[in-house]
Amino acid sequence: MSLSETHQKTAGAVKKPTVFVDGGSGTTGLGIAERLRLQNDIAVKTIADDKRKDPAAKKALMEEVDLVILCLPDDAAKETVALIDSMGPKGPRVLDASTAHRVAPDWAYGFPELAPDQADKIRNAKKVSNPGCYPTGAVALLRPLVDAGLLPADYPVTINAVSGYSGGGKSMIESFESGAAPSFELYGLGFEHKHLPETQLYSKLTRRPIFVPSVADFRQGMLVSVPLHLDTLPGKPSAADLHAALARRYAGSTYVSVMPMQNDASKSGKLEPEALNETNRLELYVFASEKHRQAVLVARLDNLGKGASGAAVQNMRLMLGLPDK
Q: How is the beta sheet containing 127-129 ordered, strand by strand?
């Protein structure tokens, strides 16, 4: 029986695949739950609040489902995965939204648009790690250029980004919504942001990029930008060459759109971060000046959509053999 057929009864009638979301109180978990309510071709199983930390109760529930989505802190996610591993063939497939397994070699990375065969890897994987929000934008911009030979793997990449405060968890949300937080701030200035390892690995960069994230006083939405001096790249490509490489990679994609070139000097060149909120879409832009031989690549997405719960549901449907929705 194929992985896409795990939800079929032996009698021939197809039953809905079953999903358990472990840890649904955070922003990602709540977003997944909201999206799952709109899915009429899956069944969601739950566990009583007083049993959530009971390994025996959780194990019994997981034996009954096809897929577990983890929305837990890293250590708790590792504990649940260890429990699933101990179940052997009875263990369900797992989609982990934490950072615990994003660079683990035996996990498929849940960015289906990463490469032409990535969606198939996700369909057939036992374990899939859901990407981080910032890496989704950065990898989407960088990987096609590295694959095309336009950006050397050892290029000194700088990534700048701004996110809505919902990406920072409960304490940050409370701080902004109470008025205690500043209207804007840089953070991660210790050069150890948790999203750096996956950004470097899946962009195929051999040199660790400099990543400067920031948060502003809006709830959700995100811009990720990469500035480039075109004359420092091999063969001194034009901005149009970079745009063409992105367009080739994402041609026909359902959720990733490469937007028209932004190189009209008469335009102000502005982009706001909230336009894709409540969607699973990702837009990629190339802003350029051939006069100055400079370009800025920009990704726009909802940090809670394609950057978190939207991507999780997209991956869930791939793993369960369900059509795109």
A: 43-45, 18-22, 67-70, 93-96, 127-129, 108-109
